[in-house]
Specification:
alpha+beta; 7-stranded mixed beta sheet; 23 helices; 19% strand
Length: 629
């Protein structure tokens, strides 16, 4: 956008309307002091001189809708074909906008959009986009003429050249990303092209945090981690991108083997606080707890919100009421929206059930010894990792009823965590892994007898041996596509009719995957390059013969909400609140990605000749010995 002129007003602008005739624009402004009418020509001359100019009239937008404008807080965005062409920040939040097509002598063109914007600070802007509707339409026509067949890399390069020639690096970056997301060009080629564009237009990247965030991702994916850090740190100046950008900075420092900087970045991300969406989630969760009579838990959520939004709605007053132990009248505030909010699944009862059989506290028991020793060599947030594991367990029991399971297998068990967990419910539970070093000192004799050193792509078990097969903690992310196909085929073979396969995986759509930091930099980088989206894994599982799959995202909130607790894994009540917050965020934001997701699929019913009580392990399979198929 190019500013033609500005006008300072006595108060915030609350509305705009305009009309143009013979080169004179009459602007009617809604202000706190009442409506004002101001007349200008397009260059800011007084109206009496302007009316001596050439005859002119307003006309339709010749761009046929290809050029549009949006307002986002204090930013005004020019869009071409729905993609950002330019994002410009004004002095304060924009409260009013209107536009018209100007055809006057001043512009020397009969195709120029004139935009008026009013702000909270009381400034009226007259602006014009840097691209005309006709140019926007021509650019999109040229784009449509790009070859749709042949080498995808050539198509990506041609598109990049076209966009760069148009004169907007911002549009070039976001439009290339749009083409990659739609599958029209290769994502790897796109990242290389975006990195090249960003290097030539560093001044534009520095001025736009949203663009810098996209560029940072491209730099990281092509291995230019130092440049990615610089871009992400620019993006961190925006509240919207701050937490995700700082997490990404930490990931880059981890890959560069600079652990002190990585830890500092993760801590900065944790301390960056919530955005508006998260504040809203915290508030409604606190109200929900309050209305259920869970005053202590509600106070905790209000106190998490106070450092970042003490003036948010009536949070201060409600916190004061609860702290003073006065009666809570749920219907007394019209701000509550719990009656219209979607009700999350009843994960609270799952937490209570798990706590009832002693599975949640972090006491020194066999089931947790592995966590206490194995993770000592990693510099990951111990509290966050503990919460992630328990959220996974809660969501597993949200889709699986242990009372209906007689036998289970955990693939890639390592810790024997889930075989031990399911054994608490009377399930005959087995585990396999490629090695047994991790369980020698951390599992009791009974569980060791149900462990086999084996490969998930060639399961050493009889057909139809299990009611449940699990593959948790992102184990499936370590498998190639060919290995996954064999694993899914083996799972289908060894499951009984109506048996269920459940796996958890890292979600590449999530902006903050800080928990991957407990892998080595090489492992983390390799994982990020090969993570599968939920729909991709679901398609592979369906192709293998499974049906009725469900996808459940979890850990959808930033780490700071975990780290703000003292020890959230120590108490069932705190964990229940985090589980409910997780579900509330996911319910309120369709398509929201968590750091991980749970995918559950069922084997179709068929006549089953296997005996339910038959031990599935073949002769010779046991602790520490390699089982033969």
């Amino acid at each position: 956008m190019r500013t033609l002129w500005t006008q300072h007003l006595p108060g915030p602008v609350v509305g705009l309307s305009l009309a143009e005739h013979k080169g004179v624009v009459d602007v009617v402004l809604g202000a706190e002091s009442g409506d004002l009418e101001i007349s200008f020509d397009l260059s800011g001359n007084p109206a009496d001189q302007a009316r001596q100019g050439a005859d002119s009239d307003s006309g339709p937008d010749t761009g046929d809708g290809h050029l549009s404008l949006t307002v986002d807080g204090s930013h005004v965005c020019t869009l071409v074909g729905g993609t950002v062409w330019q994002r410009l920040r004004l002095d304060s939040d924009i409260t009013a906008m209107t536009a018209m097509t100007a055809m006057t002598a001043m512009t020397a063109k009969r195709d120029r959009t004139l935009v008026f914007l009013g702000t909270v600070a009381g400034i009226l802007y007259a602006m014009t986009p840097l691209i005309t509707p006709a140019r926007a339409a021509a650019l999109l026509r040229d784009e449509a003429l790009l070859p749709t067949s042949g080498d995808p890399a050539d198509r990506a390069a041609r598109a990049a050249k076209l966009y760069e020639q148009a004169g907007s690096p911002t549009f070039a970056v976001f439009r290339l990303r749009h083409l990659a997301a739609s599958g029209e060009v290769d994502a790897v080629d796109t990242d290389r092209l975006i990195a090249a564009i960003a290097r030539k237009a560093a001044h534009v990247v520095c001025a736009d945090p949203a663009l810098a965030f996209e560029v940072g991702g491209a730099f990281a994916r092509v291995g230019a981690y130092e440049e990615a850090v610089a871009a992400y740190q620019i993006a961190a100046s925006s509240e919207r991108h701050r937490t995700a950008a700082l997490h990404a900075v930490g990931d880059c420092f981890s890959v560069l083997d600079i652990p002190v900087a990585a830890v500092a970045s993760y801590r900065a991300a944790a301390a960056s606080g919530p955005n508006d969406e998260t504040r809203n989630d915290l508030y409604h969760l606190a109200r929900r707890l309050e209305e259920r009579g869970q005053s202590t838990e509600a106070v905790t959520q209000y106190e998490k919100l106070l450092p970042w939004g003490a003036g948010y709605r009536d949070v201060w007053a409600r916190h004061g009421i609860l702290r003073s132990t006065e009666p809570i009248l749920a219907a007394s505030s019209s701000a509550s929206s719990s009656s219209s909010d979607p009700v999350p699944p009843d994960l609270v009862s799952v937490v209570r059930q798990l706590d009832g059989v002693g599975l949640l506290p972090t006491a020194k028991r066999t089931i947790d010894d592995y966590d206490a020793t194995f993770y000592e060599r990693f510099e990951n947030p111990a509290v966050s990792d503990s919460v992630k594991k328990r959220l996974e367990m809660i969501n597993l029991f949200g889709v699986v009823d242990p009372a209906r399971i007689q036998t289970s297998l955990d693939v890639g068990s390592g810790t024997l965590r889930y075989p031990q967990v399911l054994a608490r419910y009377g399930v005959r539970s087995y585990g396999i892994d490629l090695r047994d070093a991790w369980i020698r000192d951390n599992a009791d004799a009974e569980c060791k007898g149900r462990f086999a050193v084996a490969d998930g792509t060639a399961l050493p078990f009889r057909d139809r041996s299990f009611d449940l097969i699990t593959c948790m903690m992102g184990t499936v992310n370590h498998l190639s596509a060919a290995q996954r196909r064999r694993f899914f085929a083996e799972s289908l073979r060894t499951l009984r009719p109506d048996g269920r396969l459940v796996l958890s995986a890292w979600d590449p759509r999530c902006d903050f995957q800080s928990l991957l930091s407990f892998y080595s930099p090489e492992e983390s980088d390799e994982l990020r390059r090969h993570l599968s989206r939920p729909e991709e894994l679901a398609a592979e599982i369906t192709a293998a013969g499974f049906a009725g799959f469900t996808v459940t995202p979890f850990f959808a909130f930033p780490d700071w909400q975990v780290l703000s607790c003292d020890q959230p894994a120590e108490g069932a009540a705190a964990l229940a609140v985090l589980a409910e917050l997780d579900q509330l965020r996911i319910q309120r934001t369709p398509g929201l990605a968590g750091q991980m997701f749970l995918l559950s699929a069922r084997r179709d019913s068929a006549p089953d000749s296997a005996k339910l009580g038959e031990a599935p392990l073949p002769t010779g399979a046991g602790s520490g010995r390699r089982a033969r198929p």
